[in-house]
Write a structure and sequence with these properties.
Elements lengths: L48 H22 L1 H16 L4 E5 L4 H7 L9 E4 L10 H8 L4 H6 L9 E5 L6 H12 L3 E6 L1 H6 L16 E4 L7 E4 L6 E4 L1 H22 L17 H9 L23
Parallel strand pairs: 1-2, 1-3, 3-4, 4-5
Antiparallel strand pairs: 6-7
Helix pairs in contact: 1-8, 2-8, 3-8
Length: about 300
């Protein structure tokens, strides 16, 4: 959409915007709401904060609509990989560095999410030891192998690797390491951003070139979508919102596929519902004890006299 200021400073002075749409008769309406989001920028003479947040929210809605329209096949293919993994007693690993690691946390132990999710988290890639240290760690070749060595990775598993740019060493080597172990890998990345920048890995390759399925977030280069007036400043990142929607879209579709195959998907109910007890959660999670690092539950013991397997 494009925010186009009226040729005169007030709507009542000139009730038509440059796009020809009629403005509101209210003097506070300085922009045509119908075209207010095509360009992702603001006119300078009548910029208002209310228009700013509305523009950003409209950009979020447009990005979600592009995702629904353009990534239908990729989400379906990713869901099929996840369903196959879970039907084979595998788990879904989710990894991201920087803010992309929020997708791993969003997918894990989530009300309405799957219990069979292992978030691959690393202190250095988060912000506990400093934000610049995190940026440097993401570019360190060989570090992904050290992270993977801590995880229980099996060939029956599936994985999501999220990186907006897809250019840094750790997400690239994470995808390579997972695939070397037989894991099917799904990339959540911005092809626009990734194709606009050079690879930082010695191979010269980026995340989207190394995986089984690519889901394009459609996020603009640099992530921030909303240009502020009169200056080269952008705000309003989209990657976390769109990435979270992708993760849930994939796991929901995978769960439907499991049901169609006669499997009950391991869906978690909210711990804050009256009908959900700690024992309910423990029973659902115990199936994955030992496979998922952050589960503080034990695998149920076999009944006396029954085979351990």
């Amino acid at each position: 959409m494009c925010v186009r200021p009226f040729s005169k400073p007030f709507a009542l002075a000139n009730p038509k915007s440059r796009c020809g749409r009629r403005a509101s008769r209210r003097s506070s309406e300085r922009y045509c709401s119908a075209c207010a989001t095509r360009s992702g920028t603001f006119g300078s003479r009548a910029w208002r904060r209310r228009v700013a947040f509305e523009l950003y929210l409209e950009q979020v809605l447009q990005a979600l609509e592009r995702l629904r329209r353009d990534q239908h096949a990729s989400i379906g293919a990713a869901a099929s990989l996840v369903a196959t993994a879970l039907a084979s007693e595998g788990v879904l690993h989710v990894f991201g560095s920087g803010h992309s690691r929020l997708l791993a946390e969003e997918a894990f132990y989530r009300a309405g999410g799957l219990a069979a999710v292992n978030p691959i988290l690393d202190r250095r890639l988060m912000f506990f030891d400093g934000v610049l240290a995190s940026t440097n760690a993401e570019r360190e070749e060989g570090y992904a192998a050290r992270i993977l060595a801590r995880e229980d990775i099996r060939a029956v598993d599936a994985a999501i690797v999220a990186s907006n740019s897809g250019r840094n060493a750790v997400p690239v080597e994470m995808a390579l390491g997972l695939r070397a172990r037989g894991v099917k890998v799904i990339a959540v990345t911005s092809l626009t951003h990734s194709r606009a920048v050079a690879a930082r890995h010695a191979s010269g390759r980026k995340l989207y070139e190394l995986v089984d399925v690519v889901i394009d977030t459609g996020v603009p280069t640099g992530d921030a979508a909303t240009k502020l007036p009169d200056r080269a400043l952008r705000m309003g990142p989209l990657s976390t919102i769109i990435g979270a929607a992708i993760v849930h879209a994939v796991t929901i579709e995978a769960s439907v596929l499991l049901l169609q195959q006669g499997h009950l998907p391991p869906v978690l109910a909210s711990a804050n519902l009256d009908a959900t007890s700690p024992d309910d959660l423990r029973r659902t999670l115990a199936r994955y004890a030992g496979r998922i690092r952050y589960l503080d539950v034990e695998r149920p013991r076999a009944a006396e006299g029954s085979p351990a397997g």
